[in-house]
Specification:
By secondary structure, the chain is of the alpha+beta class. It has a single domain, classed as Ribonuclease H-like superfamily/Ribonuclease H (Nucleotidyltransferase, domain 5, 2-Layer Sandwich). It has three helices and four strands. The protein has a four-stranded mixed β-sheet with strand order 3-2-1-4.
Amino acid sequence: METDQGLSERVIFSDEATFFLSRKVNRHSTWILGSQNPHALIEMERDIPKVNVFCAISRRCVFDPFFVEDSGTGKVYLDMLENWLMPRLVDEVVQGYIYQQDGAPPHWHKEVQEYLNEHLPG
């Protein structure tokens, strides 16, 4: 960042999270520190309804969240990119933006990679 003063203006950070529609906490991505026994038995539910939420943020803008009931597959992620995120990035008019994503499996889907290679600058 020291050599590229405009870098923070161009980076668009993104991430997604799954929220289960029950009173149980998703222990995969949530840590709770407390005074209770960490080895206590925790009751788990299976096949409960859930919603995936995707969000993106830049120095200039917080993009409205994108909600999807379907699981986070490559096809769902590609649909979100094509129909929700990329039109907003065009509206944002950030020249030479850098789109950041983590290594989640849907991000490595072949069609997602092809789409990103075709539509992202540089």
